[in-house]
Automatic annotation (TrEMBL):
Domain of life: Bacteria
Binding site residues for a divalent metal cation 2: H130, H155
Pfam families, per database record: TatD_DNase
Binding site for a divalent metal cation 1: H6, H8, E94, D205
Source species: Polyangium jinanense
InterPro entries, per the entry: DNase_TatD-rel_CS, Metal_Hydrolase, TatD-like, TatD/YcfH-like
GO molecular function, one term: DNA nuclease activity
Protein family (similarity comment): Belongs to the metallo-dependent hydrolases superfamily. TatD-type hydrolase family.
This protein's UniProt keywords: Hydrolase, Metal-binding
PROSITE patterns on file: TATD_1, TATD_2
GO cellular component terms, semicolon-separated: cytosol
Name under which the protein is recorded: TatD family hydrolase
Amino acid sequence: MLIDTHCHLDPNYFPEGEDAVLERAREAGVEAFVVIGVGEDLGPARFAAGLAARRPDVWASVGLHPHDARVLDGPMEDELERLARESRVRAVGEIGLDYHYMHSPRETQKEVFRRMIALARRVQKPIVVHTREAAEDTITVLEEEGAREVGGIIHCFSEDRPFAERALALGFDLSFSGIVTFKNARAIHEVAAWAPPERILVETDSPYLAPIPLRGKRCEPAYVVHTARRVAELRGERFDELAARTTENARRRFGLA
């Protein structure tokens, strides 16, 4: 059995309803889910927290994606903190830096990233980090803001081994998405093969990044099986061993019962 440690299940992504999506995943061998609540408003965060309260196999993480950093104000931050304190909300995120699309100005992204780390430290929950084309600034902000105190996950890991080593030293685990199944993702293959066994997780980032052999389709939590199989192959391990280890790691990192 596997845990999908990062999926977006907002109704606009899955009009058939989240319960149908999760049942397909359970049939595929996925036993639990961390649902991410981020968006331009508080709707996705409230949705994720509500779903976690309703379903015993779901936990939530809430935050503000770097794309949306420009919208943060005091009332929104207060509500995110309130939601983050709920017992079924197990992390703050995804938060971080994304210099690829630049939907929010770079300095605004860094300021909001710092504020979200401070929020995570106040509620004493781990951080789910999004980083794209911003590796050095991501590490710098994590170091300067004391993120080691709560640790967390580098979600959808897409950097290289030197970055991985620095993230691991800060207390962050590495979560692999469908990108690890792509042929040209050689740096990610290297990290997946090398990373300490107790520090790896698997995810879908659904509805994005469907793995081979489903690339191009809408991704969903059931597909994490393909990602886990590829990570096991890269590490020279049996699939059932990899599944058991990543599930144990996820339960420890998120404090799942």
